[in-house]
Amino acid sequence: PLSCADDARCCADWQASDAAESTSVGEGAPGSDSESRGSGRSVSKGDLPRTGGEYTTAMLRNIPNKYTREMLVNQLDRRLKGQYDFLYLPIDFKNKCNVGYAFINFCTNESYERFLKLFNSVHVSDCLPGLNSWKVAEVTPARVQGHEANVQRLRTSAVMAELLENPEWMPMVFNTDGSPRPFPPPSPPQGEQRSKKARREGREDRGLAVKAKAAGRAPPPGRSGRSWQ
């Protein structure tokens, strides 16, 4: 049978190209708000160092497939509680286990660097104890950098429908003291928001045109500036 990591139906497409060849660099000064919440630029992963950039979002690889979100949070909180504000452990919906990697956003670049030293190239049995594993953990910068960018990307992702039905799989966001807070509800993509607004305005304009015609008046101009025919 296929393992969790091999199953083609996994939900990890949300940041799928992290496992491929590209990544992003967060912009802004280390520790600044623009760093942890700003957008990023794409660069070749072959040229990207694990450290030395202004990163805040890490991709942690080689997590045992049976490791749970709670187990991961417990290990992070042992030495990094209050230093990260977003965590997502993608799940293979068919096999109901994680796909082997997680995304974690840290509040500052310094905390990201601390995480890198604690987890990168460390045997999983040491940094993620609880399950027998021969793997070695690997930390790389995530393709999507920053708290807001990661939260918004998930809120507009198709995987949210499945995640909402399984709260234990949901991504997590945290307060500055390390306590979890509710993850924001899903939101439609910007294009869908615009199309809904256009449809609503179109219905309103057509309604005004019908009323004007019934009253014997000239139809008002539509939102596009043209009169309804």
UniProtKB/TrEMBL annotation:
Residues 31-46 have a biased composition (Low complexity). Residues 16-54, 174-229 are annotated as: Disordered. One of its GO terms (molecular function) is nucleic acid binding. InterPro entries: Mei2-like_Rrm_C, RBD_domain_sf. Transmembrane segments: none annotated. Pfam families: RRM_2. Residues 56-154 form the Mei2-like C-terminal RNA recognition motif domain. This is Mei2-like C-terminal RNA recognition motif domain-containing protein. It comes from Zooxanthella nutricula. The lineage of its organism: Eukaryota, Sar, Alveolata, Dinophyceae, Peridiniales.
